[in-house]
Design brief:
Layout: H1 3-11, H2 21-26, H3 39-43, H4 53-57, H5 62-89, H6 102-115, H7 126-130, H8 148-160, H9 164-190, H10 193-204, H11 207-212, H12 219-247, H13 260-265, H14 272-285, H15 291-313, H16 318-325, H17 327-344, H18 347-351, E1 355-357, E2 361-363, H19 371-376, H20 385-407, E3 428-433, E4 450-456, H21 460-480, H22 483-496, H23 516-531, H24 538-561, H25 563-567, E5 571-572, H26 573-579
Antiparallel strand pairs: 1-2, 3-4, 4-5
Helix pairs in contact: 5-9, 5-10, 6-8, 8-9, 9-10, 9-12, 10-23, 12-14, 12-15, 14-15, 14-17, 15-16, 15-17, 15-22, 21-22, 21-23, 22-23, 23-24
Organism: Streptosporangium nondiastaticum
Pfam family, one: PMT
GO cellular component, one term: plasma membrane
């Protein structure tokens, strides 16, 4: 090709096909850019064909090996989930006690399923509940979190009764299912079944996730809904980009080429996975209010994804095109849906209007349910009163809750600053007893008393390694423009950074369980880099496998070592002291 012909060929290219100016300048020095894949593969990278080498080495026939390889996308995650479920449901009712904040959510959940609103329980009721008490007072109770998480906990109580197994069952189930979701999400994100299963396995052996999955607190429920929403937007990303890829024109060589008419003008139609993400984000907000941060963060992320997809497809003005074609529908698919789900979660509170008497006023209804009629001073009359008055009462209730949540500063023994969360400097003790030899599982031949503790402590080596993984992902995102790193960092930032605005508030390290799945994805991505990129030499692969395998085995060993203080198993006091690596853990 002559220089004149090359010039005309270059002028005939679309803007998306032109190499960047820096590449053109470096060509005079002999620089050759890496060959770019087909635009369709850039939009939706294919899943690599699973290998059969391992199964063949085990002596399986070719057909059976191919079948097992095809099933690995599900069999691998299911095996990891089976392990996670076995350890989480093992002796789920132990300790047989109301531990830490179960004193609020277990009883509130029981009242919700009985009356539709939370009740005010006597202060000394916990011991009676353990002995079988299940009568619910009908006086409304003041609560500071929306009801969905407690409805979820109450489903287990409806199945098994008001007892430790009942109020922990659904949290353990969601904790187990979150491992399955993370395996599948990691597989889709990294296009690797191995890395997806690795991310799920890391979360399965994390102590914080393990303890939170066996305790009826709201944060594990919130984590489940957030992770489900992330999975939905990830699927939506692949589906929408596949539609763009299918609409691109194909050249004589069979490869697709960018086209500005497709990139700028193609309508992507109904996107049900985005609506599903709105539903899950609404459930997250209706569990704890910090779910709203994920709604905003994921909303911004999907807008950037849409613009990037249109740019790859050939759009001349990708952000303008995304603003015109995608953003309005993205908003309608998430924000109004989430708001509707949030309001629907208060159905029990709305429906129980109670009874009114001149002597006692409104009775048998939720807290603040009739604030507009009693104390608001501006109740609406007429046919809209049944709608506007409850909404005004709920708004007042939410204002009071906001004030409580933003001003809570009562000192607590186990509160911690978010700066210390990633290194697990101050875990939370949910339960502690000191049984004597021969009591509550303490060995008869123990030289001294024993310790039984349930400590909400993340597996230390996992969290410390995740700090390095976050640094690696920052590099990948900022300098290599790796969208996968950006997606994982978005999840970490949404769950972690807002707490720095409330450093004077009483907060705890177990809030970090919400962004723990994204830490596991970050660590899996770093381990994938340690293993080496495709095409690496055999020596590089062996060195990477040794390093990555050592790290994973150490994390698993760390989980096993701390197992007794995750489960409340009685161990000699000296063995307990050996596990208190830092004074701040006591």
């Amino acid at each position: 090709m002559t220089s004149d012909t090359a010039t005309h060929a270059s002028q005939g290219r679309t803007a998306a096909e032109q190499p960047p100016p820096w590449q053109l300048r470096l060509r005079r020095f002999g620089y050759a850019a890496r060959p770019q894949p087909d635009v369709r593969e850039r939009l939706v990278p294919p899943f690599p064909e699973p290998g059969t080498r391992v199964w063949s080495l085990l002596g399986m026939r070719t057909e059976a090996a191919q079948r097992l390889a095809r099933w690995s996308g599900w069999t691998g995650p299911l095996l990891v989930t089976l392990f996670a479920g076995l350890v989480r449901f093992w002796h789920l009712g132990s300790p047989k006690a109301v531990i830490f904040d179960e004193t609020y959510y277990a009883k509130d959940a029981w009242a919700l399923w009985k009356y539709g609103y939370e009740a005010k329980w006597p202060d000394d009721i916990n011991d009676k509940v353990i002995r079988g008490w299940s009568d619910v007072p009908d006086a409304p109770g003041y609560v500071v979190h929306p009801p969905v998480g407690k409805w979820v906990i109450g489903l287990g109580e409806w199945l098994f009764g008001l007892n430790p197994v009942g109020w922990r069952f659904m949290v353990a189930l969601l904790g187990t299912l979150s491992v399955l979701m993370l395996c599948r999400i990691g597989r889709r994100l990294f296009r690797s079944t191995f890395l997806g299963c690795l991310a799920g396995a890391l979360m399965a052996v994390d102590g914080l996730h393990f303890v939170m999955s066996r305790t009826s607190l709201l944060d594990s429920v919130l984590m489940f809904f957030v992770l489900a929403a992330f999975g939905c937007v990830l699927i939506d990303r692949d589906r929408s980009r596949a539609r763009l890829a299918a609409a691109l024109p194909v050249g004589e060589d069979g490869t697709a080429r960018p086209d500005d008419a497709v990139g700028d003008g193609l309508r992507l139609g109904l996107r049900p996975w985005r609506i599903a993400a709105g539903v899950f984000l609404g459930l997250a907000c209706a569990t704890k209010w910090n779910g709203a941060v994920f709604l905003a963060a994921f909303g911004l992320m999907i807008i950037l994804w849409d613009a990037a997809a249109r740019r790859t497809a050939g759009a001349r003005r990708p952000f303008v095109s995304a603003l015109r074609r995608d953003v309005p529908w993205a908003f309608l698919s998430t924000v109004p849906v989430a708001v509707a789900v949030y309001l629907a979660s208060w159905t029990g509170w709305f429906a129980n209007s109670g009874t009114y008497s001149e002597t006692n006023g409104w009775q048998h209804s939720g807290y603040y349910r009739h604030w507009a009629e009693n104390d608001g001073g501006y109740a609406t009359d007429g046919f809209l009163s049944g709608v506007l008055n409850p909404l005004r009462s709920l708004w007042k209730y939410e204002q009071e809750v906001w004030h409580f949540n933003t001003t809570l500063s009562s000192p607590h023994t186990y509160q911690s600053n978010p700066w210390s969360w990633l290194v697990q400097a101050r875990p939370v003790s949910y339960f502690y007893e000191s049984p004597k030899p021969g009591e509550d599982g303490c060995p008869v031949d123990a030289a001294d008393k024993c310790a039984r503790e349930v400590l909400a402590l993340g597996t230390p080596l996992l969290w410390w390694a995740a700090c390095f993984a976050l640094a690696y992902l920052l590099y990948r995102w900022a300098l290599r423009r790796d969208w996968r790193a950006g997606a994982v960092l978005c999840g970490v930032a949404a769950g972690y950074l807002p707490w720095f605005l409330w450093q004077e508030r009483t907060i705890f390290v177990f809030y970090a369980v919400v962004f723990l799945p994204f830490l596991c994805l970050a660590l899996a991505m770093m381990i994938g880099a340690i293993l080496g990129p495709p095409g690496s030499s055999e020596r590089r692969r062996v060195a990477g496998a040794v390093g990555a395998g050592t790290l994973v085995l150490l994390i698993a060993w760390n989980f096993i070592y701390f197992w007794p203080i995750y489960t409340g198993h009685a161990i000699p006091i000296e063995a307990w002291r050996n596990r208190m690596w830092f004074d701040s853990w006591i």
